[in-house]
Amino acid sequence: MLGPRVDAEAKRTAHVLAALSTHAGPVERTLGLRQVATAAGELAAELSDLAPAVVGEGLPAESTSQSFFRVREGELSDQQAALHGVLVIHRRLEDLCDAPLSGSDLALEVAGMRRSVLDLTGAAPGAVVTTPLTPRAAAALTEFGRACEASARALRLTPGDLVVIDNRVTVHGRTAFHPRYDGADRWLQRTYVTTDLRRSRDHRPHDGHVLVH
Question: What would the pLDDT profile of 61-106 be if each residue is shown by its tens digit?
Fold first, then answer.
């Protein structure tokens, strides 16, 4: 964690991102994006108080990916890495205010931004995680966590590895790490395979090819 003020702003930004109505009409969607952009800007301001921005941070990039993975000669501190990532997210949000995506495309991008904000700052997910509503549910969730930890199997991947997981019988996750967005971070590609598209129709807006939960 980079301090209580950054932690609070990061959680607020993540909360606003999670609450964004990605399938709303153009006016409501744009207003929501402006609200998120404001929150991201305030988070960047808090991070700026901890460390100066990297030289050249304000230079325009040809794409969001180029902004994220621009190679730098010097090693970034945790504060600089967090500030760099949040500034990229802030710029992207401002772009979306002028030409917003919609539907599942926007939902996927916003979900990635929210995860990046939490990863960059080390903030806990907060109220978005599963929360038990009764003592019995809390006990069941604790027991479930213990069972998962007791049966967990670690698998270290190397470049070029492919892992196939059956979601019907497997719970899976990844170990935490602090991204630096310097071109050398962990990078995974994910895809889904299904034998019956009809069963996922409720999670594919407009009968498209993108799953939204």
Answer: 454 444 444 444 456 677 777 888 888 889 889 888 887 677 777 8
Please measure the distance between the N-terminal and C-terminal CA atoms of the chain and give it in whole angstroms.
29
Residue 212 pLDDT class (50, 70, 90 cuts): low
CA 20/CA 31 separation, integer angstroms: 10
Residue 57 is encoded by which pair of tokens? 């941070």
Q: What b/e string do you get for 92-129 counting C-beta neighbours within 10 Å, with b at 16 or more?
A: bbeebbeebeebbebbebbbebbebbbbbbbbeeeeee
CA angle (112 as vertex; 208, 146 as ends), nearest 5? 100
Q: Are 112 and 92 in contact (CB under 8 A)?
A: no
CB 110 within 8 A of CB 17: yes
Grouping H, G, I as helix, E, B as strand and the rest as coil, residue 193 is coil
